[in-house]
């Protein structure tokens, strides 16, 4: 279990309670409520513009205004973005932006935030999960391919040793071998006790790694499924994700 | 694997690459500084010009600490250069003539004030930050005239006593050269060390993408504030030394024109390279002296040169020299 302080009696969970979010006067999220238990992968599915990314950005304090509560292991998630990150939640946005003028090793080093737990993510773990990064340690990260840069931003987030990690469409535009590497990293993070929110258009990846599935429409969860239900009803989910 | 990764981490943490090589570099740098004044024996003006160029180099390095490391562009950096000059000048007239104490007191005063002002400024980014630095520098500029009884107003701060070092008066041009040279070398070594440290890497990370840096827990504003205060403090050191050397401070030190010149040193030399701005400042100062002695329209020529440099060599003097060096190394390797 990743070592982020858990107050007595609190569940190890990232909890959204009746979350509303606004950009200016436009309300994007309408009373969103769901849990992300530790050591699980929660997939947010839905068409573009339905509020998936806004949910992640609201968690990091990047929307204009929110109402409702987000709590992390019982403590309210609030304050500037870096403080939310230091509380134990991190975001890997969809536009894979590395620190282009730093090498791969330096990108990982600036992100490394040991918690003191025995199962903290280390450089070795990053290289084991993403061997390509190991071959590129001293290369300026701005010169990496798109797939390698995506691996790096995921590895960077893992080395921050968060309690919860949010991935926004991490496999968009990636070749199949990179997609598999990302899936491996998600499983590895879950196995270390990290709770994960995965926003993903690729249903096969979501079904491969997900434990819980929430379909979002117009800023609200319209359907929630467990893993078994989702696997049994993949066609219905696929239909919900298709523009008619 | 562990050894390799530890080695990587070592590079990041700023450990010296090879002790022998470092000692050689230090010895060479010290030898050049020690010998230089003797090469200009009988040419006191040239030695003075060299000292002016070194002052410009220190202040250029100070701006690169901010702009090169964090991407924050300051249009008002002369405010801190001038603040250091006036602070040291006033302190030398009222408190002590000891050069070390004067510089330390100026550094302390600048660090405190720059931190207070920087705490407001660094919350802004891009053009807003740049314009606010210009506005702030104009406020400091105006203060000189508002408190003209203290600062001398348009006449500048006059009558600054000759500083002392452990009771001995510091007035010989070669001694001043060594002081400027020593401060520049120590400042550069410190800046290079910081660049390789975790702090330096964090600065470069926020320069590349501040939002992503905050996602992994970096307090971006605090990191920017450290850069801003360090940069201001080093600029003030340059100002303090300049005024003690020059014996007077003029409001021109705080002007937007001076800020523009400092920015030109950095761009001309190569933003973010640390060594480049030093080269840019030295080249600019020397060229300014010689070109302005031929024509009053020297700014027109410098403006043209500046535009040409930005187009032809966007990496500045340092970038151009690095390119030549790299191509030469590649040619030598191919020939072997």
From TrEMBL, chain A:
<keyword id="KW-0547">Nucleotide-binding</keyword>
<feature type="domain" description="ABC transporter">
    <location>
        <begin position="14"/>
        <end position="243"/>
    </location>
</feature>
<dbReference type="InterPro" id="IPR003439">
    <property type="entry name" value="ABC_transporter-like_ATP-bd"/>
</dbReference>
<comment type="similarity">
    <text>Belongs to the ABC transporter superfamily.</text>
</comment>
<dbReference type="GO" id="GO:0005524">
    <property type="term" value="F:ATP binding"/>
</dbReference>
<dbReference type="InterPro" id="IPR052156">
    <property type="entry name" value="BCAA_Transport_ATP-bd_LivF"/>
</dbReference>
<dbReference type="GO" id="GO:0015658">
    <property type="term" value="F:branched-chain amino acid transmembrane transporter activity"/>
</dbReference>
<keyword id="KW-0029">Amino-acid transport</keyword>
<keyword id="KW-0813">Transport</keyword>
<keyword id="KW-0067">ATP-binding</keyword>
<dbReference type="InterPro" id="IPR027417">
    <property type="entry name" value="P-loop_NTPase"/>
</dbReference>
<dbReference type="InterPro" id="IPR003593">
    <property type="entry name" value="AAA+_ATPase"/>
</dbReference>
<dbReference type="InterPro" id="IPR017871">
    <property type="entry name" value="ABC_transporter-like_CS"/>
</dbReference>
<dbReference type="Pfam" id="PF00005">
    <property type="entry name" value="ABC_tran"/>
</dbReference>
<dbReference type="GO" id="GO:0015807">
    <property type="term" value="P:L-amino acid transport"/>
</dbReference>
<dbReference type="GO" id="GO:0016887">
    <property type="term" value="F:ATP hydrolysis activity"/>
</dbReference>
<protein>
    <submittedName>
        <fullName>ABC transporter ATP-binding protein</fullName>
    </submittedName>
</protein>
